[in-house]
Write a structure and sequence with these properties.
It contains twelve helices and no strands. It is mostly helical and 303 residues long.
């Protein structure tokens, strides 16, 4: 089948900016409601709501889960995705939303390294290894220089959980690419992730005493925003864009997300940015662009 995907046009760019803003604000939004509902419970409930919406969409489209073929990788992907958000929910208790969004977005580096070893056709070029090195040095820089020992220690732990969430996200992508889920409908793969996240995080919330729920209008609005817009609608729009436009160009555009995340953390939550974190974050983002954008740049030069 010929590749009919097209280059980004103005409409796609506008949609991507809106998606990146939506994904970027979710960390600050989670942090903002922590006094009303535990983050572990909020993420569990939003995943359950999104799973119901995906199930309704699959029923409308007459799509069926291919459990006979996909239940094993689906289980692994679901658990990894759930673990990612356990780290996010726990990490946001200690670190800033601006820190979390940058560290979560180290996932493409772990994906690139995994793809290098799993698929010979996707081995990293020399320039991409420079990007990997730059990103990892940047990660190291973001962990340096916390000024107050007690606060710094807590934030360091939160930052570490953020990095683990990026690793879990990267492993999730690798399992999808290396398993039968690579050919499964996006809704099926997303449903495995949502159901597992709902179940696991709900259990963790109950076992660890993080099931606080104050049913205020703010909490219900937050649940609707997270469950309908972030976990359901935005991913469906993203998958629709992937079917129509070049994935490499969309991937480069998606790196606006951590930039928006940092901006929202500063503007909405009055978070302060340490110099070492700014330097490290810039290095991480540059490394990500080098690694993920290399293929697109080579293709562009070859035209």
């Amino acid at each position: 089948m010929p590749n009919t995907r097209q280059a980004l046009d103005g409409k796609a760019m506008g949609i991507m900016v809106l998606l990146c803003m939506l994904w970027g604000v979710q960390q600050s939004h989670l942090k903002a409601v922590v006094d009303e509902i535990s983050l572990m419970l909020l993420i569990a409930l939003r995943s359950g709501l999104s799973a119901l919406l995906v199930a309704g969409l699959m029923h409308y489209r007459q799509e069926r889960m291919n459990l006979a073929q996909n239940w094993k990788p689906g289980l692994v992907v679901g658990l990894l995705f759930a673990v990612e958000f356990v780290f996010v929910a726990e990490g946001l208790r200690y670190t800033a939303a601006s820190h979390m969004i940058v560290l979560v977005y180290t996932a493409p580096i772990f994906v690139a390294l995994g793809m290098h070893w799993l698929f010979p056709a996707e081995r990293l070029a020399a320039v991409q290894w420079v990007g990997v090195l730059l990103a990892f040095v940047g990660i190291g820089v973001t962990f340096l220089g916390h000024e107050q020992p007690s606060t710094g220690s807590n934030m360091l732990w939160g930052d570490f959980l953020g990095l683990l969430s990026g690793l879990a996200w990267g492993l999730t992508t690798l399992v999808v690419r290396a398993s039968s889920l690579a050919n499964a409908p996006a809704t099926e793969t997303l449903q495995y992730q949502l159901v597992a996240t709902f179940i696991l995080l709900l259990i963790v919330a109950l076992v660890t005493g993080q099931a606080e729920f104050n049913p205020t209008p703010v909490v219900w609005a937050s649940l609707a925003f997270q469950g309908i817009l972030v976990s359901f609608a935005s991913f469906l729009i993203w998958f629709a864009l992937l079917r129509r436009y070049m994935a490499a160009q969309l991937g480069i555009f998606s790196f606006l997300t951590p930039l928006f995340g940092v901006l929202f953390g500063v503007v909405l939550l009055n978070e302060s940015l340490e110099l070492h974190f700014i330097i490290g974050a810039v290095m991480v983002l540059l490394g990500l662009v080098v690694v993920s954008g290399y293929g697109w740049f080579v293709g562009w030069r070859g035209k």
